[in-house]
């Protein structure tokens, strides 16, 4: 037999953003939540590509702008999430968008 590299239903690590807009804006008091297999206490966080420590929880409120990722045992690294501290930002909903979808844009000034 053989085993595919990415079997159907494979667990992957996701980094959820609240409020659900991308890029995230620091002024919105952004909360990041790491979801994946493994225990909550094993979540490892990265900021700007550097190991940022192992937190007790799988979520936290961001206090610094930067690019964040998380790692959970058994499901690997999450995609990156940018948190900006810019004065003018055009945001899109933090969800998968397909060609032809109606989308609401948000301009933060």
TrEMBL record:
The family database entries (InterPro entries) matched by this protein are listed as:
Ig-like_dom, Ig-like_dom_sf, Ig-like_fold, Ig_Fc_receptor
> In this protein, which residues make up the domain named Ig-like?
7-70
* Superkingdom of origin organism: Eukaryota
Q: Which GO terms describe its cellular component?
A: external side of plasma membrane
Q: Name one GO molecular function term.
A: transmembrane signaling receptor activity
Question: Which PROSITE patterns does the record match to this protein?
Answer: IG_LIKE
Does this entry carry the keyword Signal?
A: yes
Regions crossing the membrane: none
| GO biological processes | cell surface receptor signaling pathway; immune response
Which controlled-vocabulary keywords does the entry list?
Disulfide bond, Signal
Protein name per UniProt: FCGR2 protein
Q: Source species, please?
A: Zosterops hypoxanthus
